[in-house]
Amino acid sequence: MLQKLFELLRFLFLAACMETHVTYSGHDVTSVANVANPRECMRICQFTRRCRFWSHQVSTNVCYMKDADAIASRAADTDYFSGPKICDDTTFTGT
């Protein structure tokens, strides 16, 4: 538990806020179709109970809401943008 907390804090302070070509596998809370872009996906996460992270699949425009454990399943995938529930747009690394 403490290790997961440390990984989460490290991610939030050291990694880019929104990441290109990254997905968080599994840990889905829900998903929403027809989401135009990663910023919109993040905003939907902000209004979704239990959503702590999100992944936006570019090819399908599906936004996946993720729980707090999702950060442990971070993986490279060129079809995704991902990030935390709250992100300062000035640190956004995607489109």
Describe it.
It is globular and about 35 Å long. A five-stranded antiparallel beta sheet has the order 1-5-3-4-2, with helices on one face. It has two helices and five strands. The N and C termini lie far apart (34 Å). It has 95 residues and is an alpha+beta fold. The protein has a single domain, classed as Hepatocyte Growth Factor, CATH 3.50.4. It is 23% helix and 34% strand.
Specify the biggest β-sheet: 5 strands, antiparallel
Number of helices: 2
CATH class group: Alpha Beta
How is the largest sheet built, in terms of strand order? Answer: 1-5-3-4-2
State the shape.
globular
Strand content: 25-35%
| Number of structural domains | 1
Kindly state the number of beta strands. 5
CATH superfamily: Hepatocyte Growth Factor
What is the fold-level CATH name, i.e. the topology? Answer: Hepatocyte Growth Factor
Q: What is the CATH architecture descriptor?
A: 3-Layer(bba) Sandwich
The chain-level structural class is alpha+beta
Order of helices and strands: HEEHEEE
Q: Output mean pLDDT.
A: 85
Question: Poorly predicted ranges (pLDDT <50, ≥5 residues)?
Answer: 90-95
